[in-house]
Amino acid sequence: MTLDDLPIRDDLRGRQPYGAPQLDVPVQLNTNENPYPPSAALIDDLARAVRHGAATLNRYPDRDAVDLRKDLADYLGHGLTARQLWAANGSNEIIQQILQAFGGPGRSAIGFEPSYSMHPIIAGSTSTRWIEGARDEDFSIDVAAAVQAVETHRPDVVFLTSPNNPTGTALPLDVIERIVAAAPGVVVVDEAYAEFARTGTPSALSLLPANPRLIVTRTMSKAFAMAGARLGYLAADPAVVDAMLLVRLPYHLSTLTQAAARVALAHREELLATVGTLRAERDATVEWLRHRDLSVADSDANFVLFGRFPDRRAVWEGLLEQGVLIRETGPAGWLRVSIGTKDEMAAFRAALEGILG
Ligand code: PMP
């Protein structure tokens, strides 16, 4: 039997699953992970927390993850409280819950592309009609054009990603404010990469008090180096959190996940110490690529989009043959490299040098 033989929903027929290749190669620079594994001290604390949590695994976890939400509010600052925080298994699940509550059949969502590919995919799986907004040549968002798109389509959900994946582009706060003012529904600012932004780049968190329909999403998968733990979260008005309670599955966040996330937050100083190193490596990578006369998007994230190659697949394969896995994504001709360790970036540069000649 094939997928086509199954009585699945008509709107899922012909769709492709999310599929960044997971290949076992020496240099993995394709999914914007943090290359630094947890320290021995963090692993010890995690093991202790898991042991403690294991003693009560016959019971369901705290359904509302209250302690974790307090810790997340404390981390974010901006005067936020646990009532304004919500957590789930990765920010992908947060995005899914947002679309379950505010999107759905007969409703629509807009994003400004190229942007994070899961926004339209989750829109599809929640039967939310996807509207493709555009970005400028330099991947910034033209605020007048964006406001016009929002006024024309009147989407129920607007996605703004800052810094944007795969381009690395950060959005100025006034652009977000003007789009929120024009939007009839909720506006999601996906800040998965916020910690990597240049110092002085403000977070949309500062806009929350004045904008109750604004939702800021974050993750522990990137700067916090906890992609394997699966912990994403949002900050918004308490009423938005009430909406999440309507769609979340009961006990969605396991005792072990909540415990692991709290340990990581307690170790945040050590974990976030990698951010400075990664930013410096990013800026050096941008400079190196520009010296090779490549087009390179300005990046406020832990990855760099570069091109433009007449045959990007050949470049991607050439790197892979040398043990360097990057991502074939973005507009035609562009490739995206995640920032790894110093040694990994040296391997990337050497491999690309060999291809460019
Ligand atoms: N938002 C953006 C912009 C991302 O790039 C990613 C991960 N690639 C996510 C959300 C989801 O991350 P996670 O589910 O691991 O929190």
Question: What is the gist of this entry?
Answer:
The protein is α/β, with parallel strands linked by helices and about 350 residues long. The protein is built from eleven helices and twelve strands.
Model description:
The protein is α/β, with parallel strands linked by helices. The chain has 2 domains: 20-39 and 269-356, Aspartate Aminotransferase, domain 1, CATH 3.90.1150.10; 40-265, Aspartate Aminotransferase, domain 2. 39% of the residues lie in helices and 14% in strands. The protein has helices at residues 40-54, 66-76, 90-102, 118-125, 143-153, 173-182, 238-247, 255-266, 268-291, 312-321, 342-356; strands spanning 27-28, 85-88, 108-113, 129-134, 157-161, 186-190, 214-219, 232-235, 295-296, 303-307, 324-325, 335-338. A 7-stranded mixed sheet has the order 2-8-7-6-5-3-4, sandwiched between helices. It has a 3-stranded antiparallel sheet with strand order 9-10-12, with helices on one face. The protein has a two-stranded parallel sheet with strand order 1-11. Helix 6 links the parallel strand 5 and strand 6 (186-190). Helix 2 (66-76) runs parallel beside helix 8 (255-266). The chain is globular. The model has no long low-confidence stretch (mean pLDDT 96). The structure holds 4'-deoxy-4'-aminopyridoxal-5'-phosphate. It is an enzyme of class 2 (transferase). Its cofactor is pyridoxal 5'-phosphate. The modification N6-(pyridoxal phosphate)lysine is found at residue 222. This is Histidinol-phosphate aminotransferase. GO terms for molecular function: histidinol-phosphate transaminase activity; pyridoxal phosphate binding.
